[in-house]
Amino acid sequence: MSAKNLINNLVKKSPWYTNGELKDCKKFWDGINFELDVVNLGSNSAVFGYDYENIDLKCANLAMGPQCLLMDYNILKFYKNHLKEGALVIITLCPFSSMAGYNYLIDSKYHTFLPKEYIPNFSKKTLYRINSLRDNPLSSYPLLQFFKDIKRSFFKSSKSIVNFKDNADGWIKSWKQEFDILDFNHELSVVNKKNREDSASILKMIIDFCNINNFRPVVVLPPVTKELASCMSQQMRKTFIYDYLEIVGLSDKLFFNYLDSTPISEDCNNFQNAYFLNAKGAKQFTEILLRNIEQEFIGKIK
Amino acid sequence: MSVKKKVGKLLKKFVTNSQWYQREFMDCEKFWKLNTFSLDNLFIGTDSGHFGCNLESVDGKSYDLTLRDSTIHQNYEVLRNYSSYIKEEGATVVMIISPFDILTGNCDYFEDRFYSILNMASIPHFSYERRKEVLSRKNAPLAYYPLLSLRIDIPALFKKNRDVSKTTASQYISHIKHRYSIKNFKDKMSLLNQDSFDDAFLIIKQMNDYCEEHSARFILSFPPASRALCKEVNEFVNNESFVTLLQKLKNEEIIVKDFTNDARFEGKFSSELFLNKAGALLYTKLLLF
After folding, report:
1. Which of A68, A115, B248, B274 has its CA 20 to 30 A from that of B64?
2. What residues of A are in contact with residue B149 (Cβ under 8 Å)?
3. Is B8 an interface residue toward A (CB < 8 Å)?
4. Facing residue for A103 by CB, picked from B126, B142, B145
């Protein structure tokens, strides 16, 4: 192994690489299992929201953060041969999934594992750039990160305590900024209305795709802390979630809403910040969710 | 000013002058700095334009908004975004592209640097997240500056920077052939490349119409080709698709100034591809004449 490869392997361990542009890609590079019983799609909330360790089924977490429904659809389409007949497909929504239409961010990271037919903004230039970042991260490894990593390897950083109330306000503020929303009680802007319709059509496409291929889709809203849930008024939920699902024409039987009023959201030890579950919470939530799905909807998954 | 601030400022200056930053935001600085209104002449274009226009001897207010390594579509968006800077009546908009740039007609890929110079509605596949990332790279480049770039940038501190292209003609031609899958410029173009010609025509026509709406004169120009490039350029220009395109442009009464085989530019080249200062001065003068 040459010196360059050795240094590259070290750089690949830096958080800059593992949590950077190629976040969550490793599981796709390593390969997804075949004959899966359960898969879940989704964005960051799904990446942290599911943990199948204690589940006695073949499961895969196909979520990436951030990811819009359009790429959920493309990933499901590409990996459909990995699923058993009658597999359970958990489509995970975020509170604002309805705002991500056809024009939402499609990251370059998909170039590293999907063929070009599945990437709407495919370009050879991006492919070249991202592959060189993947295989030779040293050439774009930032100078300041180098000092940070050296410091990190000598001193263990203490875990900072998250104030859930402030964090929840931060999330709401950043969503408002991202989707140009002044007040959740106002009517939606024309652009956002269009995005909502786009997003609904994509969600419909995913559900239709599942039905055609004999998979069993369910739509899930994972739990959030009560601090964040209290920031989401009834009017906001109506505009961004319930009205949206009405446009999709989703039957109530397929929709599992855990946004609040679950035992998980009561305990703040289940969360790493106001929005994401931690490992402990994810294990609990996955068990509860699969049990509920079995009881209320489809019977035995396997 | 404290010492810390001073060092920070120096470091930022070093990083913004580094090759890495200049490549990430190639030719964008003049867009950020543009503050002259009611321009008489506006120059847009690709690499040929960057090396081909020299505004020193031009009368009236002029500005050069050429972008290296850009496509026709990107130039159209530049024109649309910066048209408020040209004067209300009788301005001239010049687009300088090499004949081969016509092949970029159906390319809708916009690099990251365009997030710093164009409105979001102009960028295909625009995303808010990406914009945030690019603007933070632009404003706080120190956090993104690659470690290995030091290897190039520290020796570069002691060298004089010269704006000369090092690409040779044969490299350039093989790059074009590879990029557009062309075996021979005399052959009939592939369907994909013919598509590019059609798209390029539409975009140029839109540009012309746009300029007409703003009471400006639109000039499309192909710069002189050096002797090393002459053979291939002539083969390409005499290709059936290109001739048809020129005919179509002529039917629309779009002004096309073709200097590809102009003998007056003999010996006025800085490299095998582009004009030198004397050549650029002459070319700009002839263009606006």
Report:
1. B248
2. 143
3. no
4. B126
- What confidence score (pLDDT) does residue A2 get? 86
User: pTM of this prediction?
Assistant: 0.84
Burial class (CB in 10 A: 0-12, 13-18, 19+), A233: exposed
Spell out, as residue ranges, where chain A has pLDDT lower than 70: 1, 261, 297-299, 302
CB spacing of A141 vs B148 below 8 angstroms: yes
Per-residue model confidence (pLDDT) at position B280: 93
Identify the sign of the CA torsion A268, A270, A271, A274. Answer: negative
Sign of CA dihedral A258, A261, A267, A271: positive
User: In Å, how far from its chain's centre is CA A150?
Assistant: 31
| Residue A48 · residue A277 · CB < 8 Å | yes
What is the phi/psi pair of residue B168, to 5°? -90, 165
Beta bridge partners of A203: none
Q: Which residues of A touch B111 (CB under 8 A)?
A: 125
Q: Which residues from chain A sit within 8 angstroms of residue B144, using beta carbons?
A: 142
Which of A158, A298, A132, A154 is CA-nearest to residue A216? A298
Angle of helix B191-213 relative to helix B240-251, nearest 10 degrees, comes to 20
Residue-wise pLDDT tens digits, B92-148: 999 999 999 999 998 888 999 999 999 988 998 888 888 999 999 999 999 999 988
User: Cα distance from B167 to chain A (closest Cα, Å)?
Assistant: 19
User: Between B111, B127, B145, which is nearest A143 by CB?
Assistant: B145
